[in-house]
Amino acid sequence: ETVPFGDAVLSTRDTCIGSEVCEELWTPRSPHVDMGLDGVEIFTNASGSHHVLRKAHARVDLVTMATTKNGGIYLLANQKGCDGDRLYYDGCALIAMNGSIFAQGSQFSLDDVEVLTATLDLEDVRSYRAEISSRNLAASKVSPYPRVKVDFALSCHEDLLEPLSEPVEWKYHSPAEEISLGPACWLWDFLRRSQQAGFFLPLSGGVDSGATACLVYSMCHQVCEAVKHGNQEVLADVRTIVNQTSYIPQDPRELCGRVLTTCYMASENSSRETCSRAGDLAQQIGSCHIGLNIDPAVKAVMGIFSLVTGKSPVFAAHGGSSRESLALQNVQARVRMVIAYLFAQLSLWSRGAPGRLLVLGSANVDESADINPIGGISKTDLRAFVQLCMERFELPALQSILVAPATAELEPLAHGRVSQTDEEDMGVTYAELSVYGRLRKIAKMGPYSMFCKLLYMWKDVADKVKRFFSKYSMNRHKMTTLTPAYHAESYSPDDNRFDLRPFLYNTRWPWQFRCIETQVNQAKMVFLPVKCLLREYQLISIED
């Protein structure tokens, strides 16, 4: 009849219900703490919690710890699907009581709605709380919540005949499994909502583009499974995408051939090995594969430059400067981007089929795309995902991709073999790069604080940190136009939503680098006497 404004709890004839909203579960002083002390027995949480790798552990721990310390029943519902942005909401609904899980919802699914049920005894909550004497003392001091009294009950006498639910052990996905499911669901949502006919992927024979192809293949697996289990909405969507009203997807490989076109864009700098790896993977996942050569387009572009300037740049391997070599490499990457969009728009037209394709990116800043499903995933996690796909989907072509050195193949071959690797170009390993990136992005470190953090961990750390920040500041502005990528964790290069620091820096970092050099010089002064003392001690020991 009357309802107070603000926080309140619902008092029924048999229990008391309180509600949290989404992130309140994650705050240092969550409402369920005081609600529970005030006698609330059932907590609900209507959540919009997006997927992040390894986040399920934190979700489950928060709920189980909340009900372990305070007793009670916790009902967590979570949004599912893509919100038209970089985020994917992964469901993961649950029902918990007194620190145990009684029902687990699926973490990744193409179903729009999922309902969980469990039969629990309110007396178990009351007896559990009665055993915690410290809780009872704290409850005597809590400020009471306004109660909205309602004249109904959640239980009835006949409930005595209902068998109670038993606790279950939570089944977690590994990070590799999360990658195989989350970004694949995101791709499906993006494809059906954009009303395009499929994807176009430049397939280079490397780990990044190979992983992207595997995500589309995983998406096809999930679509076939959803249709197999009677999901009529997914069936209607896939029929619209392939433009065939009677189509029923049963084989992921056959569906992949309809929705994925892959393309190996060779140049004079490409090796036979990468061409073979790309072709083998395309054949095994069933994609419609195209092979072409970009040399005529590259020579045409460079011909325009030479005609205007009278100059012809050459690679460093042929005696050119680093500026010339970098420009020649970038022309190849950007020509590939233009060709990718051309084929995405017209390749189905050339086959007499309607529609256009979305260009998939695979993390390279110089090669733009429509969406990038792996842009927020670290190299370490990505390689684990590729290994999983090789075993689970039986794709042996991925073995040779995993063991091959990462290379852009933009510089001339040496005796027919690849002479360029990513790690040599960067001057750091991918393992080191991951450490730098996480310290910069998640720990919010600049050059000096990163140097201090790594000083006793690595050799030549001063030069490495300065090199990283010099290169980072030169390229930071590219992040402002980065292809929209699946947000898999906080370690993401996307600055539009998750990193609001400047994109224009002084690339010399004069103050920070000077602080680093000062510390290096002081360290040398400290270590030198210690080394001398050790040598004298060793001589004395030998003589003795």
UniProtKB/TrEMBL annotation:
CDD domains (alphabetical): NAD_synthase (cd00553)
Keywords: ATP-binding, Ligase, NAD, Nucleotide-binding
An example Gene Ontology biological process: NAD+ biosynthetic process
Keyword Oxidoreductase attributed: no
A GO CC annotation given for this chain: cytoplasm
Domain CN hydrolase: 1-122
PROSITE patterns noted in UniProt: CN_HYDROLASE
Name of the molecule in the record: Glutamine-dependent NAD(+) synthetase
Species whose genome carries this gene: Balaenoptera physalus
